[in-house]
Amino acid sequence: MGHRFNPKHIEKLDNPERRKALPPDKILNLLDVQEVSSIADIGCGPGYFTLPVAHMTEGTVYGIDVSPEMLRLLEENVQREGLSNVSLVESTAERIALPDESVDRIICSLVLHEVDDLKQTLSEFKRILRADGKILLIEWEKKPMDMGPPVEERLDPETLLHEVEILGFHGQISYPNPNHYIILAE
Fold first, then answer.
1. 145-165 burial string, b = 16+ CB within 10 Å, else e?
2. pTM exceeding the 0.70 threshold for the entire prediction
3. Which 3 state secondary structure label does DSSP give 184?
4. How many Å from the N-terminal Cα to the C-terminal Cα in the chain?
5. Residue ranges covered by each domain of the chain
6. Can you give 92-109 as a three-state secondary structure string?
7. Ordered alpha helix ranges (H), 82-168
8. Which residues sit opposite 63 in a β-bridge?
9. What DSSP designation does 6 have?
């Protein structure tokens, strides 16, 4: 397992540089969110994707995080924005506390390099996703740079795509900027 993100560095999760590199609305458009889509944001942190996607649907948006501190911050942000369709779930990515086939879309941004068991985590994604669902994964490029986790903890995009496809999904890799990649799978 890679190191878990330290909540003391919360400013790294939402700042102008990140919004330029990973613009939430543009990225969320890849998911084709419908008016009543239910969405799981795995490793949601304070809500970088949770909040904007909650404005895109009347369905339930599950903000899922292992950190109670992150979920407290998300709750504050949800209240500040007056959202009523966000449900907070304290859970690991390897054992998601949601029923089978409970969501239409899954977002998992910059989290998979931290999980204890990648295969188990991806199997959980498949378990909670409805048959016609979509998954959006964002990860760090596996190359040296001044930000992000150590290179040895990062996931190679082709390897991650292969793991996703083993589960029966069809996916594509795209590159929104030089430091990250996106896998969109259905």
1. eeebbeeeebbebeebbebbe
2. yes
3. strand
4. 26
5. 7-185
6. CCCCCCCCCCCEEEEEEE
7. 118-128, 157-166
8. 41, 88
9. P
Question: What is the topology classification, in CATH, of domain 7-185?
Answer: Rossmann fold (3.40.50)
Distances (CA, A) of 23 to 114, 131, 138, 156, 163: 22, 28, 12, 22, 26
Alpha carbons 14 and 87: distance in angstroms, whole number: 21
Mean pLDDT of the chain: 93
CA distance 177 to 141: 10
pLDDT tens sequence across 20-40: 999 999 999 999 999 999 999
- At CA 75, angle to CA 74 and CA 79, rounded to 5? 115
Classify each residue of 21-38 as buried b or exposed e, where b means 16 or more C-beta atoms within 10 Å of its C-beta.
ebebeebbeebebeeebb
Distances (CA, A) of 21 to 10, 27, 89, 112, 178: 17, 10, 27, 19, 9
pLDDT digits (tens, 9 = 90+) for 101-143: 999 999 999 999 999 999 999 999 999 999 999 999 999 999 9
Taking the C-alpha atoms of residue 125 and residue 133, their distance in angstroms, rounded to an integer, is 10
CB atoms within 10 A of CB 184: 20
